Amino acid sequence: MKKSLLISLSAHLLLMLMFVGINFIFPKTVEVPPRVVMDVALAVDKGAKAKKTKVKKQKKKPAQKKKKEPKKVKKKVVKKKPKPQKKKQVKKKIKKPVLKAKQKSKTKAKKEIKSKKVLKDLKPKKKVISENDTKKTTVKKKDKSKKVINDVKKSPNVSKTNSNLDGKLTKDDLIELRNQIKQCWKVPAGIQNAENLVTKVKVALKPNGKIINAEIYSTSISTSNQFMRVMSESALRAILSDGCNPLKLPKSKYKQWKNIIITFDPKQMLN
Amino acid sequence: MKKIFLSLFLLLTSINISFAETLEISITEGEVKKTNIAISNFYMEDSSSKEKKMIANINAVITNNLKNSGLFEAIDKNAFMQKPFDMRFRPDFSSWRPINTEILITGKVININNKYKIEMYIWDVTRQKQILAKKYMISYPSWRRLSHLISDDIYTRITGETGYFDSRILFVSESKKDGRRIKRIAIMDQDGANIKYITNGKYIALTPRFSPDKKKIAYMSYKRGVPAVFLHDIKTGKIQFLGKFRNMTYAPNFSPDGSKMIFAYAEKGNSNIWEMNVETGRFRQITKNKHIDTSPAYAPDGESIVFTSDRTGSAQIHTLNLNSGVVKKISPGGGVYTTPVWSPRGDLIAYTKQQQGKFYIGVMNIDGTGERLISNSFLEEGPSFAPNGRSIVFSRNDISSLKTKLMSIDITGYNLREVKTPHGASDPNWSSLNKR
């Protein structure tokens, strides 16, 4: 019994370590663009001005996709991988992005324009990645993304986490969010050592920005300290006030902001 | 067993995933605004007109206290959508949010054998929950004191600071009679109510200071010709003269435990600081030099004093450790610094500063850093801290009316307001809190 327990425990620990490890090894997987690459490729298959309806048709009749795909793409793929087995692989590759493309059919013209460039350079993977890479991503991230591409094939789970990619919040989104909350937060003035009273509030949000739940996630000192309690209450009031509930955030990026941890730190203000 | 492991596994992996998907942001700025508070009249079943008046008076005093603190914005009662009866059990928060209520005060009054049991409730409207419930028992004449106690409880719960409404202010009342200026020492509640005169104005009396238990006051008077410090028992009216000193004694102050009194003694053109044991009547010289040391005041721990000295050239603020005798100049210079007082919470020193023909009330950290001049005018001086260290009262000469009046200001520099007195007023000294 004990042995089996130990074996079971160690096996589970190993699994958990693997899960945790994935996050540590590829901490930016959410930012990695391979899916975008595929999405883009498909979008371009239908032409730079691909519309929702066309994408739907693709999904319903996958066999027709190839026919509708631009010749350039076909040729390139066929030239590269003439064997039928490899063709199948290519099909598979394309199928996944079709679904994703369906989700992403609302993507903006910018991405579509980018996708043209991507298609032109579809042959070498390196180029595809680098061209699709966002402005902020570094060379290191690009290297990681290569690995992730391989993993995507093997592990469907990872591809699921990657489905948030397109909804990445921009710097402007974050600035706007901060400004909203800033206006709702009434900082208790004149509190002794207020600069040391930091509160983290965990907020769960609905897609319309309304708060499902807001709770104190952590405080710099115990809330048995009356000043800490007042400061943390002010943070909660800020989040629940009419000015901040609902929060105005881009719906298309909901997955990115459905859970937020907000740190209320008055240090800078008081200094 | 398998199920346990499976659930544990799922839990841990879900935590891991949820962490990965949680957005984190920091808010480092906010607004410094008043808290919107709605103070409803307390509910009483079958109340008489006298009781209705008492309830209205309690409400008025609480509202006035909280408004005067500068930290609360009282919502106009005409905007209230619920009456006290509607809230005898629990308020309907949806009726209070439209009028921007953050905090709501409700209560109940029950007459029990001509005494009143009062229940007070504080509601956080934003979070839709009760955050304090408190009971009090009073007789009718104590309604004003009760109002101050309730104000203190509300203030403490919302700000985290100890309240200061159940306290008194000692000051010099300045009036005119037959063209003659009369200066009398007077006591009033911090909101200006219940004024009582301690001295009759026959002799000039200045710089009155409370003992911590508020049973005695010390002040400088010209009663014996030469200005001297007197100890005055408020209850018995007995006056004690510090007979040891032939020359001028002035600027008295009590230690935080009330066992000692500190003052300045002027002799042969210089002034030094002395300490007197109030119980034994013994004296101890604290400073001994050929300069002018004056305006001593204790730190809240009683271990140090702060005082003014011209030993560095001009009048500057110094601290002195009573155990080691180490003196340290703390004021940054650039003006004349006088009348320093130590905050009851120990973090700040308030003072009068004179620079380029203007007077300022300032605060700085106890090491002299972080100087902030929070008020200025043609002539103002003599700051004194509220018992919670949040507000300061001082006197200001109104150049237009030539009247001296009392002003109060928050240590943040906000909420400068006049403390109304029937006559001119100067030399204020804010008491500690009354005992509950």
Global geometry of chain B = globular
Largest sheet of chain A: 3 strands, antiparallel
Distance between the termini of chain B: 59 Å
Helix/strand order of chain A: HHHHHHHHHHHEEHHEH
Oligomer: heterodimer
Rounded to an integer, what's the Rg of chain B over CA atoms? 26 Å
Q: Rg of chain A to the nearest angstrom? A: 24 Å
* Average pLDDT rating of chain B: 91
Number of strands of chain A: 3
Report the uncertain regions of chain B.
Answer: 13-20
Count of alpha/pi helices of chain A: 14
Secondary-structure content class of chain A: mainly alpha
Description of the structure:
- The complex is a heterodimer of chains A (271) and B (436).
- Helices cover 59% and strands 8% of the residues of chain A.
- Chain A contains 14 helices and three strands.
- Chain A has a three-stranded antiparallel beta sheet with strand order 2-1-3.
- In chain A, β1 and β2 (211-219) form a beta hairpin.
- The longest helix of chain A has 24 residues, at 2-25.
- Chain B has 436 residues and is mainly beta.
- In chain B, the strands form seven sheets. Chain B has a five-stranded mixed beta sheet, with helices on one face. In chain B, strands 9-8-7-30 form a four-stranded antiparallel beta sheet, with no helix packed on it. A four-stranded antiparallel beta sheet of chain B has the order 10-11-12-13, with no helix packed on it.
- Chain B starts with a helix and ends in a 6-residue tail after the last strand.
- In chain B, α2 (49-68) packs across α3.
- Mean pLDDT of chain B is 91; it is low at 13-20.
- Chains A and B meet through α1, α11, α12, α13 and β3 of A and α1, β1 and α3 of B.
- β3 (259-264) of chain A pairs parallel with β1 of chain B.
